[in-house]
Amino acid sequence: MKEIEPSTNEREFVLAALKDGARIDGRNSYDFRTLRLSFGSDYGAVEVQLGNTRVLAKVSCEVIRPFTDKPTEGFLVFNTEMSPMASSTFEVGRQTDEEVLVSRLIEKAMKRSRALDTEGLCIVAGEKVWSIRVDIHFLDHDGNLVDAACIAAITALMHFRRPDVTVVGEDVTIHTLEQRNPVPLSIHHIPICVTFAFFHHGEHMIVDPTYLEEQIKQGDMTITLNVHKEVCALSKAGGLPMKMDQILQSTKIAVVKVTEITAQIQAALEADAKKRQTSRK
Amino acid sequence: MDTTTATTPMNLENSPAFTFTASTFQKLHPIEYFRKFVSQGVRPDGRLLNGFRPTTVHVGVITTANGSAMVRLGGTTVVCGIKAEVAEPKLDSPDQGYLVPNVDLSPMCSSAFRPGPPGEQAQVVSDAINRVLKESKVLDLKDLCIEEGKAVWTLWVDIVCVSYDGNIYDAALASVMAALANVRIRNPSYAGGIIKVAGGEAISDENSFRLKLNRTPLSSSFALFDTSLTLLADPNFAEESISQGQISITIDEHDELCAVSKIGAGSSSQALLRQCVDRARERSKELRAIMSAQ
Amino acid sequence: MSRPDRSRTSAHQLRPFFSSQNLLNRADGSAQFDFGGSSVMCSVVGPAEVRIRDEKLDRATIEVVARPLVGIPSIKEKAREQNIRETLEPLILSGLHPRTGIQIVVQTMKDDGCILSTAFNATIMALMDAGIPLKSILGSVTCMVDEKTNQIWLDPTTEELAQAKSAHVFVFDNKSSITSASAGAQGKDADVDMDQDTVGAAILFSDSTGLFTEEQYFECAQICFKAAQAIHGFIRTAIAKKLEKEYQQTHA
Prior knowledge:
The complex is a heterotrimer.
Chain A: H1 8-19, E1 35-39, E2 45-50, E3 53-64, E4 75-79, H2 97-112, E5 122-124, E6 128-140, H3 145-159, E7 161-162, E8 165-168, E9 171-174, E10 183-184, E11 192-199, E12 204-207, H4 211-216, E13 219-225, E14 231-235, H5 244-280
Helix pairs in contact in A: 2-3
Chain B: H1 2-11, H2 22-28, H3 30-39, E1 55-59, E2 67-73, E3 76-87, E4 98-104, H4 120-135, E5 145-147, E6 151-163, H5 168-182, E7 184-186, E8 188-191, E9 194-197, E10 208-210, E11 218-225, E12 230-233, H6 237-242, E13 245-251, E14 257-264, H7 270-292
Parallel strand pairs in B: 4-6
Antiparallel strand pairs in B: 1-2, 2-3, 3-6, 5-6, 7-10, 8-9, 11-12, 11-13, 13-14
Helix pairs in contact in B: 2-3
Chain C: E1 17-21, E2 29-35, E3 38-48, E4 61-67, H1 75-88, E5 101-110, H2 115-129, E6 138-146, E7 152-154, H3 158-161, E8 164-173, H4 174-186, H5 196-200, E9 205-212, H6 214-250
Parallel strand pairs in C: 4-5
Antiparallel strand pairs in C: 1-2, 2-3, 3-5, 6-7, 6-8, 8-9
């Protein structure tokens, strides 16, 4: 179904409010919406709610043969196909430009930043490696899919446990979850995306835009950072021309956001681990 | 909608200008036309309601394939060809081969199908056949192992519909079972990581093997017509397109059920399903006789 | 009388099931239905604009999209889409909304067996949440026959399904179960030799695979029918509660 453009009234109301430094959902310009993380009963499944945006990430693994030119490298595969569940503008089997852009951004942020140690996924060089698959399901689209998806993906990867393996010579035994405690993946760092949207020719800048704000924005930029203040990716695909200073300023804002979000992810993971331990007893 | 407009010419039957020929009536009001036949206990093609269309089975129709069969079910013709290829097994099932059925419904067999990637019906029938073969353990995939962890056989089971006139599932499953029974694969030899499959001399019992089939499931499908859920055995294309739903019963030679599916239409009583099972039992015996006569 | 799922004591026991409605804000209706460790989210959009190619002049076009938890949609999902669509088409009063489209998206959220049944139950709740007019509601339950003991286990987990000789998915609607039960009570049904229980279980959808006998099949149908009554009751209560809440909100 076609996307319905916001009405002139809506558009002007949002823009006028932004001029006064206000957003229609009551947030300040640099506020994220409430972030909720909920874990399933099995490892590697996490549902992220960022305001009304809802994303489910599910991590799974299988043993496969590595490429001959990279015999010790495991695989990290992303699936970010969008379903019409998130928004009926997404059609099955036909990717819109927006979809491609979002998918590429997520892959860039998660894969190229080398957050996951793929060499650590090797079982027997040249023979067997783990392939880790992250399926990201967009359930509800209320803007800023990228940030929500990245939070979901990295949290799910951190939550995931793969079956333990023992290698004796050529023989590889994969232990079931009942036989041996599964092992976590080795994560180098936690890249977090922070998306900015620009209005009034760059005069006003906000973080975590909603769907309505995304429809009205003039330009956007996504910065991927980790808690060590390292920039992993920066993506600004066209749109509005920006001043250097503004990029530096937004990076500083992003650092604060990343620290907050990382802390929340870690707290949620710890709470879940505790819950699991008590339920096992 | 159909009934109201169809009654208009009936009321004016004195006026010849409003009389339809049978074929016009069929085109304008296919459901009403069909209802008139069903009320007399027959179908437009002369069959009784529980009658299946004449069926023929020919095996070994494709000489280049390892196994093949052609099944005609009235106007529906399917050809099944099975090709065996050596492949590497999956790491988590090192001693199991592959059995991959694929149904092709191309525009060649009916204008109802479009060119391009397989449509929904083709995929659904492929899935149904795949499930029967696997869940009913027709073939032990371990029999397809050449060397554990190194090489296994992949059986590509391609089912091509040549002419489509309804009930593709029954025809396709029968062709697959006939073709599987027809499969002959040359004995492979494994030495030092190399698989050799000797060619050349004529295929014989010494240099080849056949598949061990645990059972031969065959299906019988019925269309459900109208709200009364009248059963129409072996529906043709016209009957399929006006039916409300379908019941398929798959049964093997030991009188065990391999699959039952009922989809569409309203709720049907268990008595109706029992009726289908009974009819399917008779039908599969007949079909088995036709297949073994080959 | 023990089964691999140690949380249950009886072979004919369902896992705890629950649902929540109206979770998504972009869809017209949505629901999530859980059977123990299995969970399916369903969203419904419609009646809305439909592609001209799919437009039907006398009724709404119903489209079902099924999505797996892991991997890209395969022929398994195609079959699931067809099963859900063809079962719901006669249930939805699509004639009330000609030349429109109703899109149903079914997303697996957690998979521990019986996904098709979970999806059916989620779909009917999402349709009601979206206010799509329906002739009746449905309830779906899966059961299996154990390879070793020939016991019938209701609502099996993935672990249990691995040792199934046959698996059976059934859907029953609440309308015909009432009418045929009363018809049976009055002895009006043509098959008077059937006992009342058997007549009651009119089957809306059935999908069985594996190896089984006719008796096993109908026994499974009977057991699932009884269990489906609990699902019907649950759906009814859930909807009643939701409406009550909505009424209070609008009339406060």
